[in-house]
Design goal:
- The chain is mainly alpha-helical.
- The chain has one domain.
- Helices cover 79% and strands 0% of the residues.
- The chain contains seven helices and no strands.
- It has helices at 2-24, 32-52, 57-78, 84-92, 98-113, 118-152, 154-160.
- Helix 2 runs antiparallel to helix 3 and helix 3 (57-78) runs antiparallel to helix 4.
- The chain starts with a helix and ends in an 8-residue tail after the last helix.
- One of its GO terms (cellular component) is plasma membrane.
Length: 168
């Protein structure tokens, strides 16, 4: 029961964060429900893969972003009739690895402060490199996974952004 509650909390907060990210770009109102669904399911999938199947953050982020990418194609084509990018970009933003980015910057600052103490400087530089590489790799896999449906379904995904739609 604790697993289900944790999963639902993770999905709920990811959906709410995606709404905030989406609202900044002022998309049509009809795009908010699929954005919430994609963010919640994608982030929930990543959480489950990492916490219960032992998948690392890079692999779990790749699988979740592929799910969000194909989901945005399905929602954009058959439900809300809007381009995929309107759906997948805000849905992916809650999966940016903020703690790794924060720790990379913090380690870099601590490295600069302690650069004259060799043992501390080496430790902080290793921490910086580790956090930076993980953050960069996760961000890269989020981009690759979300754009994969565009490459696989090129003709039909291309037409999604070329048709004229009525605004809601």
């Amino acid at each position: 029961m604790d697993i289900l509650l944790s999963l639902l909390q993770d999905a709920f907060f990811a959906g709410m964060a995606a709404v905030g990210f989406a609202a900044v770009s002022v998309p049509p109102r009809r795009s908010f429900p699929p954005i919430i669904i994609l963010a919640a399911l994608g982030h929930g999938l990543r959480w489950y893969l990492m916490n219960h199947l032992g998948v690392d953050i890079v692999g779990a982020s790749l699988l979740a972003s592929i799910f969000i990418g194909f989901g945005s194609y399905i929602f954009g084509r058959w439900w809300v009739h809007i381009p995929m990018t309107v759906l997948y970009i805000p849905a992916l933003l809650p999966m940016i690895p903020g703690m790794y980015c924060y720790n990379a910057v913090l380690s870099l600052v601590l490295f600069v402060i302690h650069h004259k103490e060799p043992s501390l400087a080496v430790q902080y530089m290793q921490d910086f490199q580790t956090n930076f590489v993980i953050a960069l790799t996760v961000i890269f896999t989020l981009g690759v996974g979300s754009i994969l449906p565009v490459f696989i379904l090129y003709k039909s995904s291309y037409t999604l952004s070329r048709r004229k739609f009525k605004d809601s």
